Amino acid sequence: MSVTTMLAPSARNSTSSTSSSFVPVTRQNTVGSDGAPRSVRASKRYSVTALYLSMSAQDKDMEIEDELARVQKTLRDLKSRISSQSKKNFVLEKDVRYLDSRIALLIQNRMALEEQNEVASHFDESSELQEGTFPDDRKTQQYGNLFFLLQSEPRHIAALCRLVSMAEIDSLLQTVMFTIYGNQYESREEHLLLTMFQSVLSAQFDTTPEYSSLLRANTPVSRMMTTYTRRGPGQSYLKVVLAKQINNLIELKDLNLEINPLKVYERMVKNVEEDTGTLPANMPRSVSAEEAAENPQVQAIIEPRLTMLMELANTFLSTIIDNINETPYGIRWICKQIRSLTKRKYPDAKDNVICTLIGGFFFLRFLNPAIVTPRSYMLIDNIPSEHPRRTLTLIAKMLQNLANKPSYSKEPYMAKLSPFVTNNKNRISKFLNELCEVGDFYESLEMDNYVALSKKDLELNITLNEVYATHNLLEKHAKELLQGRDTEHLTILLQELGPAPPQVPRKENRAIILPLFSRWESALDDLSAALDITQEDVYFMEAKSIFVQLLRTLPPISAAVRRPLNLQKIADVAATTKDIGTFRKGMRGIELLNQLKELGVISEADGYQILREEVEQELVHLGSLKEKVTEESLKLDEVYKTIRDHNAYLVSQLETYKSYLHNVRSQSEGKQRGKQQKQHVLGPYKFTHQQLEKEGVIQKSNVPDNRRANIFFTITSPTPGTFVISLHYKGRNRGLLELDLKLDDLLEMQQNNHDELDLEYVQFNVPKVLALLNKRFARKKW
Hints:
Elements: H1 9-14, E1 29-31, E2 37-39, H2 42-56, H3 67-107, H4 113-124, E3 130-131, H5 137-152, H6 155-163, H7 166-180, H8 187-206, H9 220-229, H10 232-241, H11 243-250, H12 261-276, H13 289-294, H14 296-322, H15 329-345, H16 351-372, H17 386-403, H18 418-435, H19 442-454, E4 459-463, H20 464-476, H21 478-481, H22 488-497, E5 510-515, H23 527-530, H24 535-553, H25 567-574, H26 580-598, H27 609-672, E6 682-688, H28 689-694, E7 698-701, E8 711-717, E9 722-729, E10 737-742, H29 743-751, E11 756-758, E12 762-765, H30 766-777
Parallel strand pairs: 3-5
Antiparallel strand pairs: 1-2, 4-5, 6-8, 7-12, 8-9, 9-10, 11-12
Helix pairs in contact: 2-19, 2-24, 3-7, 3-27, 4-27, 5-22, 6-8, 7-9, 8-15, 8-19, 10-27, 12-14, 14-17, 14-18, 15-16, 16-17, 16-18, 17-18, 24-26, 24-27, 25-26
């Protein structure tokens, strides 16, 4: 494939803002050295410019320090931190999911002491990874070859992803999504990852006879797609598009929009019983779903709720459609592949079926999980109360029915919302098709790979266990992996590596820097031959790149940078500076001007007009780029803060589980030894009403404002996992009330999404209470 074709705009938009993208310039015919007229292709210039600017970023002898360079550096650093933090959160979430299931058994007293010890060992090993080096230089080189091959030829990972079991997929995804392609904002890695997705999806379509079952089952492929949406760009989209709508809705704590007739009837019975003490003869305590649906009072309650639900769902839908341009390029590109593969594999599939498959990914795998559990996606701070939580679930169901072929067999009451589907069907089809309208990236990827081959510092930040686990999976599935075409290099590398080492204990695991390089290809010296372009084009693009860099480096007050630009003067001034980098660029600029004159590409008579115009246009572009980079930095800064907050929550959750496990194990061991261990009382610790309110522990207070200054609380822990909270009024010896709490109860409340702890005068926030207790009462053994 030639790299001389112009990059698609959408592919340009998908790349990091730190790399310049360029507007093609209409070129005049010029005269070649042989005197014949020649038309210089703008598309060719365009591609090589992108290549040269990618490579110029590697120059160490010249640092550009203008405002654009500074904001670009800030953005690069921010993107790097988001990528790193996303990986840490993924690992923590995996730990929390595992411990959630184990702690649930503890709460229900169904876990044996041996299992408790197994969970405890998980905690003991889950400390922050230390940095280290690979124990063997020869293995470092072999693994560097292997992971370069895996990264640059995604078909191998794609094949592996199709072969692994559900038990293995999370570990593999961690390595693939957050390590091998962990730089989520770097165009080469992102495009290689998407290439892998294309291969995986293509195989999935090939092996699925009925398109109705595509992408629906919980398979390694569907898990891959979900994990992809959880990366930085997907999180940024959710924050921008959904956070405000969801936060507005959850503020309406008392708005009950339940439309399930049976639940509405049960609530109605409960209210009547509470108000009157008895039930009328015509209102039995329990009825069937059909009887509830036919009840006139139930119908009267549901009718206005239907209208309001459809209005709310419409606001969500409008926000999603209006923000189509915020959708990450990668997610839109996957939608495009789903449409393309469906048309190729199932020629008879109608447009509405294709839209159903696209909607299945975009809504089922991406948007709806965030709407149903917004706290897990860092869109809200606390678990929503009962009514808003149910409303969000209903809205997600409505959006899913709109994107898919609606089925009301399991929940007939949802059929009442069918007007929402009917009224928006054309609208959603248009949106889903527009989602797919993005350009491809293959030619920019080809250039990126050429640049990667000429780099000396390609590397992965990876752990020993990630290296060994990937090696183990490749070895385990080698028979299937090495049957395909073009697997000779992978075969050689696996044979040289030998058997995969076993996983090391987590406390011995180390984060290492693994240098990547190709075993079979060397750096490119002759770019013109490698990229199928003329030497004239190479010189022209290099000259353009150098003059843009010089203009960003020379002082703004310098006479050389005044308009109209005098390229000869700029190069002469640069060649007389004391800065070695600027001097070299100036000398190279003079040399390139002379070479381009000799080739007849530019003319001194018109002041090198063709080259000057392109340099000036690039400077205009860079001016607008600064504003875009600054705007993107502000958005991503908010995303990074959210990801950090979520990390703190996950760490707190793990610490809470650790303290609970310690309590249970202490009690179990005490019973087994037939004696009660003596425990030291902790506390009391004193907290003012204002302090707890400020920290969010008190989420609602019935204490009059003028008395809050006189209210304080004390918390004591007489034994591990047991707490006594007392509410006091200044001047009184005894507390107004006292509450005994067990850590079990708080964990169970949190697990059941019961967010409020009622203390009569105040309502505490359960997660915040857990965090407070964890912070103040952590015993040394925890």
